[in-house]
Amino acid sequence: MKYAVMNYVNDSAPMHFASAVNAPVTAIYCSTLPSFGFGPLSDRSFIVERQGELYCRPCGLHGKKACPEGHFRCALEIKEEQLIEML
Asked: pLDDT tens digits, residue range 32-62?
């Protein structure tokens, strides 16, 4: 991870591993929020998430295995432009 050009991860242990070695990281947030205080800490880090409020987000502290609302808008409405900017 440390020598990667960029590490693409979700809000999970690999994000924290990358931060621990100051590896470049792009963290993608779906059902959780970076405002919980568990975002990437690397010098070169980016956060990608759906823009704007979503009534059901967050659906839990750690997210769920399946969308409780059945639409998964927190991920499906992430704009492609945000992801392209990170490349």
From this structure: 998 888 899 999 999 999 988 999 999 877 7
Backbone angles phi, psi at 84, to 5 degrees: -65, -40
* Separation CA 69–CA 57 (nearest Å): 10
What letter represents residue 64's amino acid? Answer: K
- Tell me how far apart the terminal alpha carbons of the chain are, to the nearest angstrom: 16
- β strands within 1-87, DSSP E: 7-10, 25-29, 45-49
Judged by DSSP in three states, 75 sits in: helix
pLDDT at 74: 92
Rounded to whole angstroms, what are the CA distances from 83 to 32, 59, 69?
Answer: 18, 23, 25
Q: pTM surpassing 0.85?
A: no
CA-CA distance, 39 to 45, in Å (whole number)?
A: 9
